[in-house]
Design goal:
The complex is a heterodimer of chains A (156) and B (738). By secondary structure, chain A is of the alpha+beta class. Chain A folds into 2 domains: 2-77, Beta-grasp domain (Ubiquitin-like (UB roll), Roll); 85-149, [2Fe-2S]-binding domain (DNA polymerase, domain 1, Orthogonal Bundle), CATH 1.10.150. In chain A, 31% of the residues lie in helices and 16% in strands. Chain A has 5 helices and 5 strands. Chain A has helices at 23-30, 85-93, 102-115, 121-127, 139-149, and strands at residues 2-8, 11-17, 49-52, 55-58, 71-73. A 5-stranded mixed beta sheet of chain A has the order 2-1-5-3-4, sandwiched between helices. Chain A is globular and about 45 Å long. Chain A starts with a strand and ends in a 7-residue tail after the last helix. Chain B folds into 3 domains: 69-148 and 210-287, Aldehyde oxidase/xanthine dehydrogenase, a/b hammerhead (Aldehyde Oxidoreductase, domain 3, Alpha-Beta Complex), CATH 3.90.1170; 373-447 and 590-737, Aldehyde oxidase/xanthine dehydrogenase, molybdopterin binding domain (Aldehyde Oxidoreductase, domain 4), CATH 3.30.365; 448-585, Aldehyde Oxidoreductase, domain 4 (2-Layer Sandwich). Helices cover 27% and strands 25% of the residues of chain B. Chain B starts with 11 loop residues before the first strand and ends with a helix. The chains are: A alpha+beta (156), B alpha+beta (738). At the A-B interface, helix 1, helix 2, helix 3 and helix 5 of A face helix 1 and helix 15 of B. The structure holds FE2/S2 (inorganic) cluster (FES) (2 copies). One FE2/S2 (inorganic) cluster sits between chains A (96-102, 133-136) and B (207, 258, 474).
Chain lengths: 156, 738
């Protein structure tokens, strides 16, 4: 066991874990942040997506030793005391059903919007191409972002 | 003097009331809601029902606060994992001692001596953390002696093949129809098509895998958290595995990440978790990994369908014969039968199962229907093309239900069929790309069952709860549970707290076959209207009027005698508040809903890639409760059908006896880049008072519509799903050279 220092959702945390422990397990088991889900454990479904220094990353693929001194943001860190506007429009537009894919999708979209506050529909599609959803058919997720940024740009 | 017939209005009655007009009392008769009749309010009077309501569990799901089975963390909990057999079939010998000696491992055992299918769990371990459980799995010393297996049709039916079941690998066929009559009918046909159509085995791919967390520490009580479609349904199996009585076990399903038919019982993960918990007297967490999900959790039956069908020159289908083989692994498979949906005057059919060493099929969203629909919609389209007839017109001549006839017209209009050049003959394979349109229809029986018990409670501080031990698979059950009560009591949606997913609450059926809504919503409405009666009586006593004269609205209660705020009204209740229990009302459940879809595709003639550009769906559902949820269900269903049409297929290597598609990289499902523009519409011409679920019907016709659209675009008929670019390109080359 080694102690790792990581900034998680804006707070400095020290956590004990073997160096090869997956970030996903450290979050879910040691830190009690179970918002990030394990859909496959192999980097294929995106439901474990977190931001590592602001970039969407599959937490199931990254060992904890690689994030020493770095910054993680999970779905629990997207909202403050109020819902983030992105979370609000996802509910209003109907972009969620069972919700198992939702934390990963919210995190992927937050990263996109932080990078580009007015993305095209094609960019929104691209940003969640690694997030699988079996329930909603994605369209309302795209629509939610459009409603948020006020653009109706067609795919080009 | 005239004898007028007494006017009747559903859910309403006439009462005499006195109104003050210019200082004078005037007696009059008015229509009021009949508080004894548990009907919904008329559609136009509803504030919530029938609108687009935000799901009440949205904030919990969007912030990661919603607790799923896999998120349950308990003091002293063990993590269990299973080892899957990598062979088609094998004898197994396992030395578990090294695993038991590994750090943190408290339980390790062999599960079977001989496996029955590829990927069957052969050992289970439990340890203090997930990593230690992985270590324990690796420490097992396993010897496999591979046994001969059959993993495809050829192997299964070969001479001397090992038997999957005791009476051979070809099940006894069922047959019906009169061969002579069908032959005679074929003789009357102007066009006859004889072809083979196949569909692969499809997986459910719930984003949350199967799994259970058991909270048992010895003693008499256990709580079982399970990712299941049936909160009440798991209690019996859990009690048996734990050695307890049913009354000692409580099932909890707060949020679950998709089921699609694969999660009705406790399932193997659940019984194993219970057994370990019973032995260890500690909580146990056991979630399948994705590989186990693909190999041992059931699937949609694959099928091979030989079909001959004929129509006369007027486009009436006169004859059909079909020979269907079902591939359900060690299970019998399911297939809805041909002819499917369309009426054919004379038909003959034969069905048989072919058994293989693969996990059994199970229910999956409209079990057996998409398979039959794909063959049927294709044949229908081939006959229309053979006659040079408009595909919509041909369908209308062979469908009986008025709903389908009007839906076809509307859907044709919405997809742009009437302006489309290829209405009576397909496009060509020349050029770079081709655009085509295809259609498909379905119908689903729905129907509710009279098992739900819904409890509605109003406390004298104004708080309201609606509870029932049903479950929300993500479809929106929780939201309409709150909304129906809020509608009836005049409350805002967030003024009613909906509680479900606990077997200690009132009974409810498992969620399958689109039956949750027609079983549950009528019972909710019954409870809601009873509660409105209770509140109206309390208000009426206060105002000195008839209970029916009391109107509950967002401001509270009003009656000819005055007004009360909601809090004032509830303060009239006794300290313990008021509670009522609602039960099923057959008048409020619809049976039979029609669905019609169209797809527009663009075929890249150089690469064979099919891009679905637009899908339209018109879906009957009786009275819509929450349009946002209904439309989402419809889009999700169309997406699964698109995925079935273009991408999904279980693949195995029959020679090596291994799985080739047991992960999400090799088993691809539709992602955000694949999805088209969707027009998902609730059919508002369906004016029935009852409600229906729409989980199943919109998943049925999509694959046929897409394959038909490919034909319509460029004249190549693809009869074997999925429509991968290699198949499309081959067919294009064949057409070019013919
Ligand atoms: S769990 Fe990490 S990508 Fe699926
Ligand atoms: S909402 Fe269920 S997987 Fe996306």
């Amino acid at each position: 066991m080694t102690t790792w220092n990581v900034r998680v959702n804006g707070r400095e945390v020290s956590v004990e874990a073997p160096p090869m422990a997956r970030v996903l397990d450290v979050l879910r088991e040691s830190l009690g942040l179970t918002g990030s889900k394990e859909g496959c454990g192999e980097g294929e479904c995106g439901s474990c997506t977190v931001l590592l220094d602001g970039r969407p990353t599959c937490a199931c693929l990254v060992p904890i030793f690689q994030v020493e001194g770095r910054e993680l943001c999970t779905v629990e860190g997207v909202a403050g005391t109020e819902l983030d506007p992105l979370q609000r429009v996802m509910i209003e537009a109907g972009g969620v059903q069972c919700g198992a894919c939702t934390p990963g999708i919210v995190v992927s979209l937050r990263a996109l919007l932080d990078r580009d506050p007015r993305p095209t529909r094609a960019a929104v599609r691209e940003s969640i191409a690694g997030n699988l959803c079996r329930c909603t058919g994605y369209e309302r997720i795209l629509r939610a972002v459009e409603e948020l940024v006020g653009s109706e740009e067609a795919d080009a | 003097m005239s004898f007028m017939q007494e006017e009747k209005r559903p859910g309403k009655k006439k009462i005499k009331t006195t109104r003050v007009v210019n200082g004078l009392d005037v007696e009059e008769e008015v229509w009021v809601d009949d508080l004894e009749a548990p009907l919904f309010k008329p559609r136009e009077e509803c504030r919530l029902l029938g609108t687009r309501m935000k799901r009440v569990d949205g904030p919990a799901k969007l912030t990661g606060a919603a607790e799923y089975t896999s998120d349950v963390r308990l003091e002293g909990m063990l993590y269990a994992k299973v080892l899957l057999c990598p062979f088609g079939r094998a004898k197994v010998k396992i030395d578990a001692a090294p695993a038991l000696a590994s750090k943190g491992c408290v339980h390790a055992r062999q599960l079977v001596d001989e496996t029955k299918y590829l990927g069957q769990p052969v050992a289970v371990v439990a340890a203090a953390t997930p990593e230690l459980a992985e270590d324990a799995l690796r420490a097992l010393v396993v010897e496999y002696e591979p046994l001969p297996w059959v993993l495809d049709r050829g192997q299964a039916l070969a001479e001397g093949a090992p038997e999957v079941r005791s009476r051979g690998n070809l099940g006894r066929p069922t047959e019906d129809g009169d061969a002579g009559e069908v032959e005679a009918a074929f003789a009357q046909c102007a066009v006859v098509v004889e072809q083979e159509y196949s569909v692969p085995v499809q997986h459910h791919v719930c984003l949350e895998t199967h799994g259970t967390v058991v909270d048992y520490r010895g003693g008499e009580d256990a709580i079982v958290y399970c990712s299941t479609q049936s909160t009440h349904g798991i209690v019996g199996d859990a009690a048996e595995s734990l050695g307890l009585r049913k009354a000692q076990v409580r099932g909890i399903v707060q949020h679950m990440g998709g089921g699609f038919g694969s999660k009705f019982g406790l399932e193997r993960a659940g019984t194993l978790a219970c057994e370990i918990s019973r032995e260890q007297k500690r909580p146990v967490h056991l979630m399948w990994n994705r590989e186990a999900e693909f190999l041992t959790s059931g699937n949609r039956t694959g099928a091979w369908q030989r079909v001959k069908a004929g129509a006369n020159k007027d486009g009436r289908m006169l004859a059909m014969s079909s020979d269907v083989e079902r591939y359900g692994g060690i299970g019998g498979g399911s297939h809805a039968g041909l002819p499917y949906l369309y009426s054919v005057e004379k038909s003959l059919r034969k069905h048989a199962s072919v058994y293989m060493h693969l996990d059994t099929n199970c229910a999956m969203r409209a079990p057996g229907h998409p398979q039959a629909s794909f063959a049927m919609e294709s044949v229908v389209d081939e006959l229309a093309a053979g006659l040079g007839m408009d595909a919509v017109e041909f369908r209308k001549r062979n469908l009986n239900s008025p709903a389908h006839l009007r839906q076809l017209d509307r859907v044709a209009e919405l997809i742009g069929w009437n302006e489309h050049p290829n209405r009576t003959a397909p496009g060509s394979v020349d050029g770079f790309e081709a655009v085509g349109i295809g259609f498909g229809c379905s119908r689903w029986g729905v129907g509710g069952s009279p098992v739900c018990q819904v409890d509605v409670r109003v406390m004298n501080d104004g708080s309201v709860t609606a509870e029932v031990g049903s479950q929300d698979l993500g479809t929106g059950t929780r939201t309409y549970l709150a909304a129906i009560v809020a509608e009836e009591l005049g409350r805002p949606l967030d003024g009613v707290q909906a509680r479900l997913g606990d077997s200690r609450m009132g009974n409810a059926n498992g969620s399958g076959g689109s039956t949750t809504t027609p079983s549950l919503a009528p019972a909710v409405q019954d409870a809601a209207r009873q509660m409105r009666g209770v509140l109206s009586v309390a208000a009426a006593e206060h105002f000195g009027c008839a209970p029916e004269e009391v109107v509950l609205d967002p401001d509270g209660a009003r009656a000819p005698g005055g007004k009360l705020t909601w809090l004032e009204l509830c303060a009239l209740l006794p300290p313990e508040g008021a509670s009522v229990r609602g039960t099923w009302q057959s008048d409020l459940a619809v049976s039979g809903v029609a669905c019609t879809q169209a797809a527009r595709v663009r075929v890249d003639l150089l690469t064979g890639r099919v891009k679905v550009e637009k899908m339209v769906c018109l879906q009957e559902c009786g009275r819509p409760l929450n349009r946002l949820a209904l439309e989402s269900q419809i889009r999700g269903a169309m997406t699964q059908a698109l995925s079935y049409a273009l991408l999904e297929e279980r693949r195995v290597d029959p020679q090596l006896g291994i799985a080739l598609s047991a992960d999400l990289e090799t088993y691809k499902i539709a992602g955000s880049l694949e999805i088209p523009e969707f027009v998902a519409l609730v059919d508002d011409d369906d004016l029935r008072e009852g409600v229906a679920g729409v989980g199943e019907p919109p998943v049925i016709p999509g694959a046929g519509a897409i394959a038909n659209a490919v034909f319509n675009a460029c004249g190549v008929r693809l009869r074997h799903l999925p429509l991968t670019p290699d198949k499309v390109l081959n067919a294009i080359e064949e057409r070019k050279s013919s």
